Amino acid sequence: MGNNKKEWEKKASKRFLEVFDKLKGEGIIRTQKEFSDTSGFESQILSSVRNEQQNGFSLGVVAMAATHFPMISLNYILRGEGQMLNLEGAEKPFPSSDLVSVLTNSIKRLEKENEKYINALAKIYDYLEGEGFDIKKLKALDI
Question: Is 139 exposed, middle or buried (0-12, 13-18, 19+ CB in 10 A)?
Fold first, then answer.
């Protein structure tokens, strides 16, 4: 049983590396780091397995990659059957440069929104102060 399991793990890991190479060849990912960062595992894992410093990939690593790259065929990795990638109808993940752009724009939008709230609060403070309210008591509430 042990040899069969090790042999299966070795074959599945080899197919996982083939899938990585195919993703790179298709231009879906550019680098090993991009693939591992997007998937959520250490980039050294790919190198360690490829250089036979590590026996194989855990099912967790394979599952994380397939979650973030839904075009990956688990059937191919686990059984060696079918196509490596199912590119029809599969959504591609954000390329990292697009993700940075989306996050940067979101941060700018939130900063502008935050500025509006700060300005509104300043007007409320001014109004309350003009009505004789002790602002120091309000600030002491630490809200």
Answer: exposed
